[in-house]
């Protein structure tokens, strides 16, 4: 089949990329089904704050007809960045919000909610974990579900993130560990409960870095500060150190030892956080990651180009989603649309992956800078 006239389109994954694609398609009168493995929209907290760039994330929201609502929800003052000296906490560099509000911050949960609310009832089918896809000889694609059922589509879009179950239909690549782990923790009601830290972080983000380790703290909405203790360390650093991540005191003691010599105002992050510690080992797909075109299936976002989290991944996932949707609306067939989309998305992501790898090296330098 594979015709662009009312094609059967499945998007796997209700993350920012998949939802943007669905919204832009719906806006142009194409119906689409999003299959999401989680049981509901609020099955888990969605994570921290994101800055949306004018030429990527914001461009995608414009295509989705949601840019004005985004601006109403976002925090332009959150664009502020401070770099502090690790030993003295002296301000080394400061960037205020740009005059034109170029990269406003928004909590990921709010952004996802904005996209979800824009879709018709039933567009997202929750609790539908995909286990794999099988491209068929006629150019369509079979979607296989965890409950043993299957459905056929003219196009399956893998928007299912780092550990995509759709990707193996296109590429044998698997993500590899970068050598960097973010240990996440958080502070509630920061202005009243943690005023000194709130002042240190300001309205946006704060970074201090030493050899092989950094501290990043970001103001989220609702007075929350989310902090990442970034370590160049084996993926199972806590196992090697004999530490149970659930034992907060043991983690604090270990981290305080690791950050010996750092200013006490920064060590406050290790000593006094309200929440426990969550390991976020950073994985990336090999770069360049590309594939030979296969009819009936494609990828977007992290499924296509998982890269270090230095501020691009969500922006690119959303732009991918908007670009793919536009191609599906504009091109004469699904196959033409996917080819047109991949010819833009793949080179763009290769360039971004190279830049992001350098960004991670700057964020967590291997040696003292
Ligand atoms: C600590 C951290 C900080 C970050 N900060 C930023 C930032 O500031 N700016 C930025 O641009 N990016 C940032 N990123 C990167 C960003 O989070 C990702 O690039 C972005 O979320 C990718 O979006 P996506 O839609 O491709 O995938 P995801 O957001 O991962 O969404 C995938 C969806 O697919 C679902 N799914 C997965 N498997 C299946 C399956 N088998 N069946 C059905 N559904 C499935 C998942 O449940 C999920 O809902 C950060 C990442 C991390 C880890």
Task: Give me a quick take on this structure.
About 35% of the residues lie in helices and about 25% in strands.
Q: Can you walk me through this structure?
A:
- By secondary structure, the protein is of the alpha/beta class.
- It folds into two domains: 9-76 and 100-175 and 285-363, FAD/NAD(P)-binding domain; 178-283, D-Amino Acid Oxidase, Chain A, domain 2 (2-Layer Sandwich), CATH 3.30.9.
- It has twelve helices and 17 strands.
- It has helices at residues 16-27, 57-63, 67-73, 108-117, 190-193, 195-201, 237-240, 248-258, 264-272, 302-305, 313-330, 334-363; strands at 9-12, 33-35, 49-51, 81-84, 91-95, 105-107, 124-125, 130-135, 141-145, 150-153, 155-158, 176-187, 205-210, 213-219, 225-232, 278-284, 297-299.
- It has a seven-stranded mixed sheet with strand order 5-4-13-14-15-12-16, covered by helices on one side. A five-stranded parallel sheet has the order 7-2-1-11-17, with helices on one face.
- A hairpin with a 4-residue loop joins strand 9 (141-145) and strand 10.
- Helix 1 runs parallel beside helix 11, helix 2 (57-63) packs parallel to helix 11 and helix 11 runs antiparallel to helix 12.
- The protein is globular and about 65 Å long.
- It starts with 8 loop residues before the first strand and ends in a 6-residue tail after the last helix.
- The relative contact order is 0.18.
- The structure holds flavin-adenine dinucleotide (FAD).
- Flavin-adenine dinucleotide is lined by residues 12-18, 35-38, 50-51, 129-130, 159-161, 165, 182, 280, 301-303, 309, 311-315, 317.
- Residues 12-18, 35-38, 50-51, 129-130, 159-161, 165, 182, 280, 301-303, 309, 311-315, 317 line the site of flavin-adenine dinucleotide.
């Amino acid at each position: 089949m594979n015709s662009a006239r009312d094609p059967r389109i499945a998007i796997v994954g209700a993350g920012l990329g998949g939802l943007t694609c669905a919204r832009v398609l719906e806006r142009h009168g194409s119906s689409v089904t999003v299959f999401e493995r989680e049981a509901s929209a609020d099955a888990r907290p969605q994570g921290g704050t994101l800055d949306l760039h004018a030429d990527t994330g914001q461009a995608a929201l414009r295509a989705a007809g949601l840019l004005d609502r985004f601006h109403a929800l976002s925090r332009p003052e959150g664009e502020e960045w401070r770099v502090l000296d690790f030993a003295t906490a002296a301000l080394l560099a400061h960037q205020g919000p740009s005059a034109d509000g170029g990269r406003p911050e928004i909590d990921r949960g709010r952004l996802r909610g904005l996209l979800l609310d824009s879709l018709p009832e039933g567009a997202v089918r929750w609790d539908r974990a995909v286990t794999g896809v099988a491209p068929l000889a006629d150019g369509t694609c079979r979607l296989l579900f965890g409950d043993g059922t299957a459905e056929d589509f003219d196009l399956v879009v893998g928007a299912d993130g780092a550990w995509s179950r759709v990707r193996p239909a296109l590429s044998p690549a698997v993500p590899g560990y970068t050598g960097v782990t973010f240990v996440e923790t958080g502070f509630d009601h920061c202005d009243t409960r943690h005023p000194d830290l709130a002042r240190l972080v300001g309205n946006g983000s704060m970074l201090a870095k030493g050899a092989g380790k950094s501290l990043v703290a970001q103001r989220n909405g609702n007075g929350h500060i989310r902090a990442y203790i970034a370590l160049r360390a084996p993926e199972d650093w806590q196992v090697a150190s004999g530490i149970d991540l659930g034992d907060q005191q043991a983690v604090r003691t270990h981290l305080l030892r690791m950050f010996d010599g750092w200013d006490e105002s920064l060590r406050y992050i290790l000593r006094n956080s309200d929440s426990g510690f969550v390991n976020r080992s950073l994985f990336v797909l090999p770069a360049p990651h590309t594939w030979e075109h296969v009819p009936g299936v494609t990828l977007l976002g992290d499924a296509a180009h998982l890269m270090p989290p230095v501020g691009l991944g969500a922006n690119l996932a959303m732009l991918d989603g908007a670009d793919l949707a536009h191609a599906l609306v504009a091109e004469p067939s699904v196959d033409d649309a996917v080819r047109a989309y991949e010819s833009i998305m793949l080179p763009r992501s290769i360039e971004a992956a190279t830049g992001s790898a350098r960004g991670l090296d700057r964020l967590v330098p291997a040696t003292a800078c």
